[in-house]
Amino acid sequence: MATLRTPEFRGVQRVDITKCTGCSLCSIHCPTGAIKMKRVQGRRAPYPTIDYSLCIYCYQCVYVCPFKAYVVSDKPMGPLTSRPPVHDPYEEYVKEKGEPPPEPRMPGRK
Amino acid sequence: MSLVEEIKGLLGDMAAEITELAPRRVLVELGEDPGAARAAAEKLKKHYGETGLYPMTVASVDRFKEKKIIVNHEIWVLWKGLVILRTMLPRDNPVMKSLAPVFPGFAIDENEQHDLMGVVFEDHPGLKEPLFKPLSLGKNVYPLRKDWRIQRRDPSKLPDRIEADPPKPVAGCQRVVHIPLGPQHPAIHEPIAFRLYVEGEEIVRVEPVVGFNHRGIEKLVETKNYHQALHICGRVCGICNNSHTMAFVNAVEAFTPVKVPERARWLRVLSLELERIHSHMLINAIMAEVIGYETLFMYIMRDREYIMQAKELLTGNRVLSDYIIIGGVKRDLKPEVAEKIKKIVEKTIPRLEYYKKVFMEDTTIRKRLEGVGVLKPSDITSYGLLGPIARASGVKTDVRKEDPHEIYDQLDWEMKVRTEGDSLARMLLRWDEAIESANMVLQILEKLPQGNPVPRVPWMKFPAGVGISRVEAPRGELTYYIEGDGRPQPYRVKIRTPSVHNVYNGAVFFRGAYLADAPVVLVSYDPCISCMERYLVIDLHSNKRYLGITRGGELRLKPLS
Q1: Tell me, what's the ipTM?
Q2: Nearest Cα to B462, choosing from B257, B321, B294, B320?
Q3: Which of B225, B309, B320 is closest, CB to CB, to A6?
């Protein structure tokens, strides 16, 4: 047995920005204030950023998200020095795809 | 006859109003008379006897708009229900008569309310201020009052050195040595200090010193909404985090019209019982370590790790589970995961039985624990000691049987009671309970009803009301008093953990024990402050100071200049 960690472990959660509508529920519910809503030029809806140095992995954000925009994993965070502790889904999308993510489609609107 | 009718017959002439808040919870409004609560408590004690009821806690609430402070003395009548004696005091001069002469267990609770809320209790055996709040805050500052705001303090203005009270001589004793035990304890990370006054080998007086780790959680949760507060309350204690969330959720659900799915109730109990098994295994492992059996410590901790794994499979984390939420649980249990948990628990039961046999039959363990720290049933009830300590002394009290919440009344289980009252009985009782809990887990996995335990949307409407919950945490009864006023934040959250009574009041019973037995008695209480590794010895007569070092079980004294 290399590790006692099970696949049910609550690991690092990330934001799928293509699903996020900017409703801010996760930010309202976050007990430690690790999730902050951010606005950028050219995007109508705000989007959440997660500060992993504050996050306690309670998964309240995963539970409350009405659009299932949080992607969960069973990987622990590891030392915070090895990567930026703040997860900014907008910037990561731009870096990966070379273009800003599409605007959210509000439910019930065309 | 129900408890309300009994109380109406007993206290009907002195109370302004007697109402039933919830099943088994009776509220007695005593008006503004500062001596009424004491008279009522004396009447209750006379009627139910010394071992028929015990002091639970004192919860005071600052009603800022009405310019009143209400003080609730909560007294539990064993197997019947809770009596809340409510006194209204003027906010600018809150003085009332103390209940500590009737129930010595109320002394620490009243002292806490004096310290943080500013209520003055007359005839109290010794109101200490500051007790929990930081010394730098100063006197006459009461953080739990509503006009006190959380503020950032300037670190340059904090005192760099705090003088402890000088040791006092003990009446009737010739040569007394004062030994501080703590506050930095290596066994379990709980900073608490005991000032032991020793004559020869015998302890003649104990003064607990608390407040090293007071984090002001009660004030903090008043600024957060209910869902945030739930996660903060889960962090009051690491080992019993599930019990804390359960107690919070139970208290909120008492005044909120939220419906909980049946499957969620079963899953909640499943997580609570898994927690009890690993907590009892931990404290027994620590006891083995204190006695000197480090191999036994490692063996028990290895088997405990499997239970932690089962908890991780269920909730997603080994320790801090954050599993129970208002209206249900946070995630469902898949059938294949349930099968894994079942296998782990089935594998653990023979190990638990084996360790129980070790504790029962090993000569060294028996010699170290048998007859050490004996508690009488009347001590237990008047000082409000709880949980396995009470049950090991023959007091039949268990929240799961007396005041069943969730589905405890639908399970087939037995309350374990021992009558010896010594340290060995307390440790053996924990093994008994762990085995019983493991059987309960298997029962739950078998009978688990179908359905969706996860509420679709978080509950957001919280009305005004009062909820009082009791949950049997591994260390004893845990109670929350929550008052809501219709806003998204709770108005007042009062937490009474079992360790407050067990550590602070249990320390009184070190008197008469030998100095070498102090760590064993402490560990058997399960607050787990143990292992004197390094301490300071002051000879009060010659005023010489020594540094004491324990190495290989041998005590050496190094003189200090």
Answers
A1: 0.88
A2: B257
A3: B309
